Amino acid sequence: MRVKFKIWRQDNPNAKGEFKLYEVDDLTEDMSFLEALDHLNERLVLKDEKVIAYEYDCREGICGQCGVFINGRAHGPHPNMTTCQLHMRSFEDDETITVEPWRATAFPIIKDLVVDRSAFDRIIQAGAFISSKTGTAPEGNSILIPKETADKAMDAAACIGCGACVATCKNSSAALFTSAKINHLNSLPQGEAEAEKRLKNMTYQMDIEGFGNCSSTAACEVECPEGISIKNIAEMNSRWFWRKLLG
Ligand code: FES
Fold it and tell me: Fewest CB atoms within 10 Å of the CB: 84, 154, 171, 184?
């Protein structure tokens, strides 16, 4: 299999970036997308050229490190799939595949396809935790949680923080990410004690980081590899509504 990769190259945050075209052959349909990029990098090393910088860790769809735009879509052409789970059989022989980094003011480019997503870390630090005494694990049934509540919290907890929601939103909003992290803990009895503080601190931090307002287009839900629902955003907004109403 042979493809042309049209890849964004940028040496550092302040350099002027540009697309460069690379022809790669000897690929197989069973290769993952990242393996194809590895293959291209091996060729570049042999030619004494600078390798393409891109991020990954687990390569099994759970760490959220590997996000890039592929042919204009976050994580490529398939729904509910991370870049590392994508295979070359999803592309045509001789296709030109455009690969670019997440584009958002709050995610500045570090190099080539790597962006700085530490804004997400700071939102997490602002409240996505519970304070509890350490000790032995409590008995599982000591706090009973209705199944619907547990399911809702676990659905929100599935967010891997890849940033596709921000990259795909025309306002570069982090509302889906932030609301999922808030609702995960605020839905559960263990998160109740700090629910108010969590809601306030995490949404404030989201604004401080320079993310835009929710565009209400639901593009984030469509491109989210974990299928996180925009109902989370509605719930976050409704929590704010009640907070303001009740003073
Ligand atoms: S490398 Fe971990 S989700 Fe893709």
Answer: 154
